[in-house]
Amino acid sequence: MRVLVISHGHPSLSLGGAEIASYNLHKGLQACGDVDTHYLARVGAPTQRHAGTALMSLRQRGGELLYYAEDYDHFLISNRATEEIERDFVRVLQDLKPDVVHFHHFIGLGLECLFAVRDALPDTRIVVTFHEYLSICHHHGQMVKTGAFKLCYRSSPTDCNACFPEISPARFLARETFVRGMLGLADHFVSPSRFLAERYVDWGLAAERFSVIENGIDVAEAAPPRALPDGKARRSRFAYFGQLTPYKGADVLIDAVTRIPDSIWGEDSILLVYGGNLERQPQDYKDKFAALVERAGRRVRFCGAFQNHEMPNLMRSVDWVVMPSVWWENSPIVIQEAFFHGRPILASNLGGMAEKITDEVDGLHFRSGSPEDLVDCMARALTEPKLWDRLRGGIKRPLSHVECAETHLELYRRLMAEHRQPVPAARDAAAMSA
Question: How far is CA 174 from CA 8, 137, 178, 231, 356, in A?
Answer without folding.
Answer: 24, 13, 6, 64, 35
